[in-house]
Amino acid sequence: MFNNEENKDYHAGKCVAFCERYAKEAGKDVADAEDNYIMPKEPTDRRMSLLVVGEASYSLSVRWKESSAKYQTRKHSAMSGKNPSISNFDDILTSVSSFGYLQRIIYLATCCLVIIPSCLQVIGLVFFAGTPKFHCVTPNVSCADSKCCTNCTDYVFDGPFTSSVSEWNLICDKAYVGANVQAVFSAGMLIGSLLFGATSDFFGRRFCIYICAALLAITSLGFPPLLIFTIYAIFPESARWLAAQGHLTQAQAVLMRFAGKGSSSIDSDALKHKLAEYHEGEVESKTIAYLTKNQSYLELLRSPRLRKRTVILCFNWLVISMVYYGFLLYVTRLDGNPYLNLFLMYLSDVPTHLINWVILQKFGRRIPYSAIMVIGGFICLLVLAVPEEQKGAITALAFIGRFMISGSFSNVYLYSTELYPTILRNQGIGICSTSARVGSLIAPYIVMLAQLPEVSATLPMVVFGSLAVAAGLLALFLPETLRSNMAQTVEEINKNKEFYGMVCMGKPRPCPLPCPCCSSEGSGNDPSSVPFQI
C-alpha cells in the first residue's frame, strides 16, 4: 500500500491527527475503556468508522515505530549484500543425510525418465530437422555434392536419414524454411525456461515437471516422457520449495521419508525448528529483494566496469552457444556416418569438463578461458588452408574446434558468476543466458550458408572460428577472479582493484607483456594490489 517508510509514517500521523481533531471538535474526550475509541454522541455508523480508523492508525503507528530499527538493519544488510540470519538449507539436508536409499532411486529415475528424454529432443533436432546429403540429377549439369547450383532444377537426397528437409525439399531457395524450423525449436526453449521457471516458483517443482512431461509427450507424439508418471506416487515435491513457501509440515514429512538416517533416528522437533528458521530466512530474503528493487537491470549498464563486463560476457555467451549448437547442426555435412560423428562429439564432452576443472583451479579463469576460445577459433579457421576435397581433414578440425568450444561453455558459467556482485548476479546471469539463446537462434542460418551457390561448404566453420577468436580476445579485458573476494555490491565493484595478471599453480603472477587489457584504469597488475586469497 505504501511505497516507503516516509509514506507510512506520514499517513499514520495524518490518520491519528484526524481522529484527535475530530474528537476535540465533537467536544468529547476519547474514552479508552476497552482500548477502543468511543464517540457516544455520534451515530453508530460514524462511531464504528472512527473506531476502525483509530485502531488502524494506532496499530500502524506502533508497528512502524517498532519495526523502524529492524527496517534499517534490513536495508543495511541488503545494500551490503550480507544476510547472516538466513539459514542454509544444505545444512538441513546434511543433518538428515538426505541422499538416502529412496532418494537415490528417485534421482536415478529422474535422470532416466526426465533428463535423458529431454536431451534426446535436442539431439533429435539434428536428424528430424537436419539436411541430409543431396546431389543434383539434372542432365548435363555439374554440381558438387550437397551444394545448390543456379542451373540445377532437380535434386535427390542420399540419406542416410530422412527429415522434414528431405520430405518437403527444403533446400536451396527454400533452405530458410528448414532453418526456421530449427530456430523455432531454440525459441521454444527460451520461452519454456522463462515461463516454467517462474511457474515453478508459484506451483512447485513437481507440478511443473509433470506438466512439462505431459506436454512433451503430446507435442512430440512420443511415449518416453510418460514414463515419469509411473513413479507419480513416490515422486516428492522439493523440500526446499515447501519450506520456502511455509509448508513446514510437508517439508518435514519429505525429509523424514527420504532421509538417509531413517525417520526413527531424526529429532523431528529439531528438524521442524530448522525448517522454521529457513522459512524465516526466505521471508527475509524476499524483503531484502523488495528493498533493493532499485538494483534493476539498468544497474548493469550504469557502472562503467559492470557495463564493460556485461557487454563482453553477453557477446561471449552468444558466440559460445552459436558455435556449440552450430556444430551439432553442421555434423550432417561432415564426412563419415552422421550418427557416429554426433556420438563422438558428445562423448568428447566428458573429458573436456574434467580437464577444464583442473585447469581453472591451477591457472585461473581469465587466461585459460581466453586461450581455449582463441585456440578453438584458430583451429576452425585452419579449414581455409585445407582443400574442400580433403573432407576427412575438415571433419577432424571440426571435432577439435567443437571440443575446445565445449570446454568454454562450462567455463563461462563459472566466470560470469564470479564477475557479478551478489545483488545483481541473478540479473547478470539472466541477461547472459538470454544472449546464449539468441546465439542458438542464429546458428541454423549460419549453417544454411554452406549449401548456397558459389559459397564454400566450410563457410560456417570460418564464421564460427572468427567469432570465437574475437570473443576470446575480448575476454582478456575481464579481470581474474580465482580466489579473489567476490563483490557484494556495485560500490565494491567500482572501488576494488582488478587483477589482470596471470595465475600459475594457484598463485598470482604479473602479466609478462604490457597490453591494453592489462592496464585498465583503476586496475592492478601487481598481485599484491588486489584481495587475492591463497
Q: Give average pLDDT, whole number.
A: 76
Q: Beta-strand percentage? A: under 5%
Shape: globular
Helix and strand pattern: HHHHEEHHHHHHHHHHHHHHHEEEE
| Spatial order of the strands forming the largest sheet | 1-2
Distance between the termini: 49 Å
Gyration radius from CA atoms, angstroms = 31 Å
What is the tally of beta strands?
6
- The tally of structural domains comes to 2
Biggest pleated-sheet summary: 2 strands, antiparallel
Structural class: mainly alpha
Helix % is 55-70%
Number of DSSP helices?
19
**Unreliable spans:** 1-12, 22-54, 56-86, 525-534
Describe the structure in your own words.
The protein is mainly α and 534 residues long. The chain has helices at 5-25, 44-80, 89-95, 101-128, 164-168, 175-203, 205-220, 239-244, 248-258, 268-291, 299-302, 304-330, 338-347, 349-363, 366-381, 391-419, 425-448, 459-474, 490-495; strands at residues 133-136, 155-159, 498-499, 502-504, 507-509, 523-524. Helix content is 62%, strand content 4%. Strand 4 and strand 5 (507-509) form a beta hairpin. Helix 2 crosses helix 10, helix 6 (175-203) packs antiparallel against helix 17 (425-448) and helix 16 runs antiparallel to helix 17. The chain is globular, with a radius of gyration of 31 Å.
